[in-house]
Amino acid sequence: MSVYSTLCFMAAAAIVMALINSKIGKMQTTIAITAGSLMLSLLVIFAGQLGWFHLETIAAEQLANIDFEHFLLQGILGFLLFAGALGIKLPHLKDQKWEITTLALFATLFSTFFIGFALKGVCMLIGLPLDLIYCLLFGALISPTDPIAVLAIVKKLHAPKRISTQIEGESLFNDGFGLVIFVTLFTVAFSGESPTVGGVVHLFLQEAVGGIVYGLALGLLFHYLISATKDHSMELLLTLCIPTTGYVAAELLEVSGPLAMVVSGIIIGNWTRETGFSPESEAHLDHFWELVDEFLNGVLFLLIGLSMLQFSFHSEDWVVMVLAVPLVLLGRYLSVRISYVGFNRFRKYNPMSVPILTWGGLRGGLALAMAMSVPAGIIVLPEKNIDVREIILVMTYAVVVFSILIQGSTITPMIHKAKGWEAEQAALKDDSAQPDATHDKHS
To answer: Is 420 exposed, middle or buried (0-12, 13-18, 19+ CB in 10 A)?
Structure first.
């Protein structure tokens, strides 16, 4: 069966799962699809072990043909990031610019090294000879929060404005910095080259800064193109050119395509929305991209659940999978808490900010795609033929599944508490203003 045929069947399966969930489960759609595909994977594996039918090998071969890493990083990622950035409000982003910058840069760097060194210590305790550089590599790919998972789950819960802006903005912008860390460590781990300060700075300027500058140019270009026509269909078709041709051009220029999509999406979603679109297009813009986003998210999260069929698990894998989840959560909590020590010196924040940013810092397909890019064959345990790629993959998969299913489905009470605190503060402000208003009236 061709790749196109496989994707068609998977898209249909994702839509059916979403339909069943809308009638019965009432879960968040992406959580329901991930849970459904995970259960399907377990059912196929279990049935194969009982000898009922052997679909596991066939399914794994079909999934391998899709090439999850390229399907996401060189395929649908541009669409998902552009669609998410369209909904970001620029005034909110400006209000939280320093918080977002700190979380995207400092928190990612701190989390990478904390998780890396802590994992090395854990591996020494359990007798797993995993070198420090590979532990740091896992820290680098798992530390950036995934904008796709965050926007698909957290954004739709309508958290308070500042918290929502911080978690959305961080997830959209930390990819560039996270990629520099990952690529640097990847080079050290698998090419034997020692990184230089000049090389790291050049990589950061080329990927991150270059991606932002290119995104600005791309957004401005399409702003003027959209403004030049009043054809409703043409205006929406032009927006499709940004995550397609625009994303491919970013790769050819060797700048960050994800950051370019975010920046251009913010321009189109704020400036062009107000001045460039015809009234008909403005009314349909969000609905059009919401459909694109929902469809591609459904396929992506189905793939995440089915990816289990491609893994071979050993007893050591289950140990590191169980340990990886609390380790990553602790790294995330400490990076956010330390950041807020500085934030609190200048502003008063919702007391639920740190818990929500910690628990809502979801990981998803991006981390899994980076883990799949790790080359196979570097053996850690020769007697069981366990290599570095297998250990990093299973740890990443455990964190991603826990993140989507458990964190994504249990964050709602925290957001309700945050909303309650905001309502109390608003009521107190109104009460304090009431006597002044009465006094002015009498005087």
So the answer is: exposed
Whose tokens are 């489960």? That residue is: 25
Residue positions counted in the chain: 443
pTM: 0.85
Q: Which amino acid is at 386?
A: I
Which tens digit of pLDDT belongs to each residue from 31-58?
888 888 888 887 877 766 666 666 666 6
Q: How far is CA 367 from CA 139, 261, 265, 342, in A?
A: 10, 18, 22, 28
The long-range contacts involving 68-76, CB below 8 angstroms and separated by at least 24 positions, are 68/303, 68/307, 68/365, 68/368, 68/369, 68/372, 69/369, 69/370, 69/372, 69/373, 71/303, 72/300, 72/365, 72/366, 72/369, 73/366, 73/369, 74/251, 76/296, 76/299, 76/300
List the structure tokens of 125.
Answer: 């305790």
From CA 410, how far away is CA 347, in angstroms rounded? Answer: 28
Euclidean distance between CA atoms 95 and 431, whole angstroms? 26
Q: What is the arithmetic mean of pLDDT over 384-390?
A: 85
* Residue owning tokens 């790919």: 141
The structure tokens 């995330």 sit at 332
Backbone conformation region of residue 28, classed left if phi is above 0, alpha if psi is from -120 to 50, else beta: beta
Q: Shortest CA distance to 4 belongs to which of 65, 64, 87, 46?
A: 65
SS3 311: coil
Contacts of 283 (CB under 8 A, 6+ apart): none
CA distance 360 to 350: 15
**pLDDT value of position 50:** 64
Domains of the chain, CATH where assigned:
3-76+90-197+294-425 (1.20.1530.20)
Give the residues across from 386 on adjacent strands.
Answer: 381
DSSP at 370: H
DSSP state of 23: I
pLDDT for 48 equals: 65
Q: Cα separation of 190 and 376, whole Å?
A: 11
Mean pLDDT (the chain, rounded): 85
Q: Is pLDDT of 114 > 50?
A: yes
Q: Give the helix/strand (H/E) hosting 399.
A: helix 388-402
Ranges of H-type helices in 89-209:
90-95, 97-102, 108-126, 132-142, 147-153, 161-191, 197-204
